[in-house]
Amino acid sequence: MTSNVAILDVTNIKHTSPGREAVRRLFHHRSALVGMAILGFLVLLAIFAEQIAPYNPTQLLRDVDRRAAPCIHILGCPADQPEHLFGIDGNSRDLLSRVIFGSRLSLQVGLSTVGFAIIIGGVIGAIAGFVGGWLDDFLMRIMDVLMAFPSLLLAIAIVSFLGTGLINALLAIGIVSIPRFARLVRSTVISVKELEYIVAARSIGATQGRLLFGHIIPNSLTPLIVQATLGIGTAILDAAALSFLGLGAEPPRPEWGLMLGEERNSIFNAPHLVFFPGVAIMLTVLGFNLLGDGLRDALDPRLRGTGAN
Amino acid sequence: MLRFMARRLVLLVPVALGILLVTFLIVRLIPGDPCIAMLGERATEAKCEEFKDRYGLNDNVLVQFGRYIAAMATGDFGESIRFSRPVADVIAERLPMTIELTIFAMLFSTSVGIFLGIISALKPNSFADTFTMVLANIGVSMPVFWLGLMLAYFFALVMKDTPLFIPPSGRLSSSVTLVNLVKEWGLTDLTGFRRFVVYFISNSAITNSIITGNWATLKDALWHLILPSMAVGTIPLAIIARMTRSTLVEVMQQDYIRTARAKGVWERKVVSSHAMRNVMIPVITIIGIETGALLSGAVLTETVFALPGVGTMLVQSILSRDYPVVQGFTLIIAIIFVVINLLVDVSYAYLDPRVRLE
């Protein structure tokens, strides 16, 4: 009988792992929920762009006026005219379709540049923090110099010798994001590597590589995840800026920054061509920023309340 | 304090050398022959030889780097390929605009940002607080150039024929011109750093109109700066407001605030002198960090508002492969950025004695 009681007690205890607890906190975080909703919507748009977009993003439409204002049937646009929710751009293409396809490009841009920066910056930071000594000094001085330039301007300078184009712009943004991740990983590695469980692992004969990749890096991931989420927003903004200046994506690619740049002189006679791509950029970046804030609060309760909420 | 500043200045030396190395490499790393990259279609065998001789490209790389540092130290930034005149002159012509814009954007973002942060912190979760923080979240997510375009649309078109009309582009109204102070003072053959300073003062619409006492021009110049400064300042404003709010909320719970209240200090004075002094430390750090965003934002916003500053020139120079100009501007912006960060560190040490004593 006693053993049965014991079993009942065990089943009544709510099992909460730290990970599950973090997820629970994330889903109770107001701004994180808004961020996830925005990003979920964008991911769906990006995946099903072909099915959702009414037209091909690069298709030149006939029988439409260039830079025509949005035509929405329920808002009084004559039913005999084709519906264009966001209007027509300067090359008589459907703006809505271009904005929808832009989400695909924008998410790819954010993830690829930050992925690149995390891998390179993470390796540099982990080596600097783990090995220490002159190598640490050397690597960190290089990072200091890169950080001595305003990041967008350094990206512009790098594009100037790589040549313009989307891939080069992404590479430039990836390079200027490296120091941020290198510093972050270095500082967490340094703070983790003296903890008892690392000393314990070392004392049972774990190799250097196993210590670094098996114990130290997995335990330094929290701030990295937060920084990466926030970094994606910045990367998308910077990539849009380079394309806006004509140094990034090339026409006719449906890139939001490029769409803004191409139509910036139409702001007074066709403001919708500037308005919608800009809102798209803003929503995307807002989504990543809100999720990043939420992740910071959920993963690291010590930092709670330092953000917006 | 002096020792602190001296140590900070010494620490600048390796960073300055690194900046010089990066800007030096920008031109050296251009794929292919720098001569063809720089001269383009005009490149012939003989011209390339002459070009390499002139820029010393036949020498050892280390010798070239040494010569580059020596030239930069005397303010010799080389010659623009596109304009066939010294890069230093091009910088003195374009830099004032960007500096004016950065300073005004900084004033706008810090004053409004700190104000909004204080209001939110003193009444947490009130309507004003929620509104400010939602605005701050949206503010940090907006592309600067898009905000600029939207502001131009609103204030120049929607507000047309109302007193709120603000001009959407240009440095000055077309009827307004600046006096050329360099010619006025007969200083056309100055060289080096002094030439740079005189040209800079002459080309800055603000210093120029103040010196000549031309108040109508000054008013016009400031009027044209409003929209670009708002556009550039919004992202830093949002960040400063968030930072001020979170720090002030924390500080207001400290024991010394309770002590001040207990001894009967006015609430207004508690906030303004007891709390704000401690709030300013992290806020000033953020202002320093945001200087980069301000400079980058200025570069982007100039394109939107057709302002003759560094940004428009930098982009044109990249597209026309005028590398000495790109090099000069990258260097000068990095130097400004580093100097502002130094000033931030110094003010930090002034506000927080612990920093000095470390």
Brief summary of the model shown:
The complex is a heterodimer of chains A (309) and B (358). Chain A has 309 residues and is mostly helical.
Give structural notes.
The complex is a heterodimer of chains A (309) and B (358). Chain A has 13 helices and no strands. With 309 residues, chain A is mostly helical. The longest helix of chain A has 37 residues. Chain B is mainly alpha-helical. Chain B starts with a helix and ends with a helix. Classes of the chains: A mainly alpha (309), B mainly alpha (358). Chains A and B meet through α6, α7, α11 and α13 of A and α1, α6, α7, α11 and α13 of B.
Mean pLDDT metric of chain A: 85
Percentage of residues assigned to helices of chain B:
over 70%
Q: Please count the beta strands of chain A (DSSP E, at least 2 residues each).
A: 0
Order of helical and strand elements of chain A: HHHHHHHHHHHHH
Chain pair with largest interface: A-B, 51 and 53 residues
Number of strands of chain B: 0
The global form of chain B is globular
Radius of gyration of chain B: 24 Å
End-to-end gap of chain A: 51 Å
List keywords for this structure.
heterodimer; A: 309 residues; mainly alpha; 68% helix; disordered C terminus; B: 16 helices; 76% helix
Secondary-structure blueprint:
The complex is a heterodimer of chains A (309) and B (358).
Chain A: H1 2-12, H2 18-27, H3 30-47, H4 49-52, H5 95-131, H6 133-147, H7 151-162, H8 166-193, H9 196-203, H10 208-216, H11 221-244, H12 256-262, H13 272-299
Chain B: H1 2-28, H2 34-39, H3 45-54, H4 61-73, H5 87-122, H6 127-141, H7 144-158, H8 181-184, H9 192-203, H10 205-211, H11 215-251, H12 255-262, H13 267-305, H14 310-319, H15 323-351, H16 353-357
Helix pairs in contact in B: 1-15, 5-6, 5-9, 5-11, 5-13, 5-15, 6-11, 7-11, 7-13, 10-11, 11-13, 12-13, 13-14, 13-15, 14-15
